[in-house]
Amino acid sequence: AQKVTQAQTEISVVEKEDVTLDCVYETRDTTYYLFWYKQPPSGELVFLIRRNSFDEQNEISGRYSWNFQKSTSSFNFTITASQVVDSAVYFCALSELVSNYQLIWGAGTKLIIKP
Amino acid sequence: DAMVIQNPRYQVTQFGKPVTLSCSQTLNHNVMYWYQQKSSQAPKLLFHYYDKDFNNEADTPDNFQSRRPNTSFCFLDIRSPGLGDAAMYLCATSSFRDLRSPLHFGNGTRLTVT
Fold this sequence. Notes:
The complex is a heterodimer.
Chain A (H helix, E strand, L loop, with lengths): L2 E3 L4 E5 L4 E3 L2 E3 L5 E8 L6 E7 L6 E3 L2 E6 L4 E6 L8 E9 L6 E3 L3 E6 L1
Parallel strand pairs in A: 2-12
Antiparallel strand pairs in A: 1-4, 3-9, 5-6, 5-10, 7-8, 8-9, 10-11, 10-12
Chain B lengths: L3 E4 L2 E4 L5 E7 L5 E7 L6 E7 L2 E4 L7 E4 L5 E6 L8 E8 L9 E2 L3 E5 L1
Parallel strand pairs in B: 2-11
Antiparallel strand pairs in B: 1-3, 3-8, 4-5, 4-9, 5-6, 7-8, 9-10, 9-11
């Protein structure tokens, strides 16, 4: 069955440290999409990135980078030089093409950046 | 800016008293979703509309209904709220139904049931 595991319930680091949020997924499908969303304390979920199963290229966007490895079924998210504004809950999610529009969410990782 | 707007931001209702939450979008997206999110949990899909085609999740309680009078607006009706329905309700849109498209969320309505 499809599943997304974010084993880190909560991470706390001091500002300017690098931090990696783990995401491990399970799927039966060869065609699927992976997403990361950010939910700051205000509550609005914000889309960060989408990756399809045929594109294993890593991506960097400013201080954010994503490492997609099909061999380990992982899609990890790294924040470099973290800032207080990065404090939020981060969700990893999976969508399979044959799953009838279901988006499978991880449980989320609460990231606390201390000044 | 194109966006998804939810009103009200906070809603308090009494046990058993019907309540309606609203969502509007200026993105002109075909698909609109309602999610329920309880504290420290991931969002849970309640239902979605593809244009006027309504799709209910199998485990969504009958107490929850939805209306989409036009492309821009979608409403969530809770007919008889119970204490267990207290949660954040999130509206989202996407341009495609198959979820390749990212979801665009509103900032949510936090429902309190007294």
